[in-house]
Amino acid sequence: MRIFSGQASPVQLQWLIWGFVFIINFISLLPMDGVPQSAAFTIVNTGFYAIIIYGNLHFLLPVFYREGRLLPYVFFSLLFLALVGISKSYLSQYLYNRFFAEEYTPMNARMLIYTSVTGIVVYVLSFVFRFALGYFKLKQQAEEIIAQKSQAELNLLKSQVQPHFLFNTLNNIYYEAYREAPRTAIFIERLSEIMRYFVDESPKEEVTLGTEIQFLENYIALERIRIRHEVDISFTQQCQPGTGIPPMLLMTFVENIFKHGIDKSSSRNEVHISLLQQDGYLVFRTRNLLHPAQAGNNGSGFGIQNLQKRLALLYGAHFELKTYAAGQYFNAFLKIPLS
C-alpha cells in the first residue's frame, strides 16, 4: 500500500482521519459509559459526523453554493442540520433506553440543543476537511508532475545516447576522411552539424538567426551533391546573427526549392535566397526558375500548410506568407515580427 511510503491516496487519508476521530470519541466516552456503550455511541456519533460532512461536500455545496444559489444553500443547510440533529438525538435516546438505561429517560430540550450545537461545529469543520483534502490532492499532483518531469528528463537523456554516439562516430569518420578526401570530410562535417541541430536546437522555443542560417547553408551544401549539374545559388543576408527566432521557420521554403524547384536533368537552375532584418521584422524571400514539373505546383503543399498553421499559433495575424509565380520565376515571401 502506498500509505506506508508517504504517498497515501485521498481515500486512504480519509480512512485515517475517520479512524482517528473514532478513537478519540471512544476514549472520551469510555470513562463515563464503559466499553459497550462507548462503542455504540461512538459509531452513532462518527456516522452522523460523516453524514454532515459528506452531505455538505457532495450535495449542498455542488448543488447550491457552486451554482451561485446562496439563499437556498443557507436554507437547506439549516434544514439539513435540523433533520440530522433530531434524527441523531432520537436514535441516541432510543439506543440508550433500549440497551443501557436502568430506567426510561425521556427526550428533553437540552439533548436537542447539545446535538444541534455539535452538528453546527461539525458542519463548520467540513470546510476545513474540504480544504485539507484539496491541499493534499494539489500536493500529490505536484509530486506526480515532478516525478513525471524527472522521468521525462531521464528518458530524454537516454534518447540522446544513440545520437551522440552517432555524432562521435561521424567525427571519427571525418578525421579519417580528411586525410584521404578533404572534400568528402567537409560534407560529413556538415551532415553532423545538421543532425546536431535537429537534436540540440530544434526542440528549443527559440534559436539565433546565426544558428538557423548555418543550418540552411549546411542543408544547401548537401543538396548540391545530389544534383548532376551545378546550380546557381545566391544567399544574401542582412541581419543580426544574435536575433532569436523559432527554429525551422525558414526551412520549408528552402526544402521546397530542392524538392520541386530544381530540374536535375537541366544545367539551367537558378535560386535566389535573401534574409533581411528591418524595422522589427524579418523578411525572407526565395526565388527559383520555374520548370515544367513545377508549373502545376502552386506552393500550397502540406509543408506550406503546416507552416501557415504554425505561424498562426506563433504570431496570430501578425505575419505575411505568400507563394506565387511571376513570369519564369516561382517566389516565396515570409515576413514575421521579431521579439
UniProtKB/TrEMBL annotation:
It holds the Pfam family His_kinase. InterPro entries: Bact_2-comp_sensor_kinase, HATPase_C_sf, Sig_transdc_His_kin_internal. One of its GO terms (molecular function) is phosphorelay sensor kinase activity. The keyword Cell inner membrane does not apply. The chain crosses the membrane at residues 12-32, 38-61, 73-91, 111-133. Coiled coil: none annotated. One of its GO terms (cellular component) is membrane. Keywords: Kinase, Membrane, Transferase, Transmembrane, Transmembrane helix. Residues 152-229 form the Signal transduction histidine kinase internal region domain. This is Histidine kinase. It comes from Chitinophaga japonensis.
